[in-house]
Specification:
- The complex is a heterodimer of chains A (about 550) and B (about 220).
- With about 550 residues, chain A is mainly α.
- Chain A has one domain: Cytochrome c oxidase-like, subunit I domain (Cytochrome C Oxidase, Chain A, Up-down Bundle).
- Helix content of chain A is about 65%, strand content about 0%.
- Chain A is globular and about 70 Å long.
- In chain B, helix 2 packs parallel to helix 7 and helix 4 packs antiparallel against helix 7 (about 195-215).
- Classes of the chains: A mainly alpha (about 550), B mainly alpha (about 220).
Chain lengths: ~550, ~220
Amino acid sequence: MNGAPREHYLNVDYGIRSWLFTTDHKRIAWLYLLSLTLFFFIGGFFATLIRIELLTPQGDLVQSETYNKFFTMHGVTMIFFFLIPSIPAVLGNFLIPMMIGARDMAFPRLNLASWYLFMFGGIFTLAAAAAGGVDTGWTFYTPYSSIYSNTHVVLTVVGVFITGFSSILTGLNFIVTIHKMRAPGLTWFRLPLFVWSHYATSIIFILGTPVIAITLLLVGLERVFHLGIFDPARGGDPVLFQHLFWFYSHPAVYIMILPAMGVVSELIAAFSRKRIFGYTFVAFASLAIAVIGFLVWGHHMFVAGESVHSAMIFSFLSFLVAIPSAVKVFNWTATLHKGSISYDAPMLYALGFIGLFTIGGLTGLFLATLGFDIHVHDTYFVVAHFHYIMVGGSVMAYLGGIHFWWPKMTGRTYPEPVARIAALIVFLGFNLTFFPQFVLGYVGMPRRYHAYPPEFQVLNVFSSAGASILAVGYVLPLIYLVWSLRYGRVAGANPWDARGLEWQTPSPPPTHNFDTVPRVTEAAYAYDKEPEEVYEFGSSPSRV
Amino acid sequence: MNSAAAPAASDALAARAHQFEDAEQQHHASWLGMWVFLATEVMFFGGMFTCYAFYRAGYPGAFAAASNQLDVLLGAINTAVLIGSSLTMALAVYSAETGSRRATVNFLLLTILLGAIFLGIKSYEYHEKFVEHFVPGAAFRFEGPFARPAEIFFSFYFAMTGMHALHMVIGIGLLAVIAIKARRGRFSPAYYTPVELTGLYWHFVDLVWIFLFPLLYLVGRHL
């Protein structure tokens, strides 16, 4: 074994072709990581422009039409090209085959095709941005999007449509891989909760995404061929679009948060050195969120002429989502209890997630309440709420996950002190940016306007100041993670002394993940035992 | 490297991709993958069926009047053609399973032929509707009180049958690839998964038409 450097998935081949034509799930995860980072900073660029415009009450930086394009491009890029794929496509792709002891995904070529679809859709959307942008908001509400908007709706919609198929095929690949590729002894209730949460996410991918695909296709057809499906002037119903749109786009919120919950389960267990309290409940909570998530879309339409009876039912069902969500939060907290806790950077992100997700989730209950929702509908209260879930929740977990598995992905550790500081900066910057927006919304500032009454300025200045701190928090990891690729300490197979199967193979892993087929004898998170007691790397070699 | 655990059937080994332990695991994975894909297809068409149901409930008279403008005879012939193609597809899978290569190829070609006949008749219908100004848009003409909702009916007619026809075209492409592979002897009773899965897809596309035909062509027949 000594002498020549060990062969692993990164040094097995070099050159651009070996990356662009790879079918290795670990390399595809890198392709996603690089492209998602690009989209994240593009979306962040538009967010910066928004925050600069809102620094002053007058609409003095750009005209309102331009501002409409800013928030649309921010939303479209961040939601469809960063948040929805983020954790599944990067961490899920990299980790699921390793966590279940497989050599690769069930359909490696399909996996690569998913990335190409993603990029293809992304190019359409960026082309729309370069050609002058789109101003409908990320929700593409009809009839504005289908008739009146003079911007590049069709180009954007086609981009989102194509990217949707990337999601569908990724979800399909996960479901088949988790069902059919598990190592001997790895029963469903021995799976890491990361895998459970991705399974639940995949169900939403395959059942929800086709609906948004056909809906956006109808909007595109309506624009191009002048169909009248969503046009009230010709007998169509624009609210039908909202139903179809939210039938996907509300579950899409759970696409963003469920994988994040999976990451947090792994981190909490690893840094408390304990088994997850109430494992089965946490696992089924993921499925419950996925299922109930399909039944709550009407709460986006309380003021869109929905009948009182449907509104009450949708309100009740929305409250139901709180149950499995709270099950998770309480079980994580119970896991911390009497744990041997260490505050490394991934754990700081995980703890930040729990706090921010709780605030985001509880304000979601406010919004599910009919009377209150009518008061704050389309105000900054809503903006703050969903940023607490999407940014405070998903992005925190994404960063925590990237830090936690960075040694596995690269073979190097990141510099811990600066990473902890960055995690704190992100937490502080985030709260300073978005907490004032709860207040702004409550006192009546509507979303999507580029000018506002002067009495809202103080809170908006807080928010913009927080955004610049948040930007520092996001740029720092970019710098030191890249730095660590060359100068980071060599990590070794299991730097966190974690119990997951992915840590029982060298870092970076060999192309086929494991030299011999592992046999699993214990449930996940056996932090009270040694890894050797949990996994048997027997005689049967991993056939290649 | 290590041949100790090589499966017995060498042709099955040749077809096994590296990530699978054995041919059976691969077969199960492919099979599940296709069913999951068909579930997404159900949701894809389901969005349009939902919209259709919504407007049909809203404009029952207009939908009946507009539906009367469709050619039921051609629709019925096409239904028979597609059901026939499902039979030949099933026979192709059976032939592959029993290892008769010639029959597999012939039944696949027959399925392609029936699919092409369907698309031919469909194009003729599209042409007629175009000539009669039933294509939604500026040129749309419809006599009587139902002009606007009738345009919505025809929007659905073209969107739904068009999406179905697109699936047929993709299906014919898949069948052509499978037929070439079958002719080259790539399949055997031990490994014919692609024939089976293409069959599943083809039957699904047929099934969509079984719903489209009454929903689009037969609405007006009650009146």
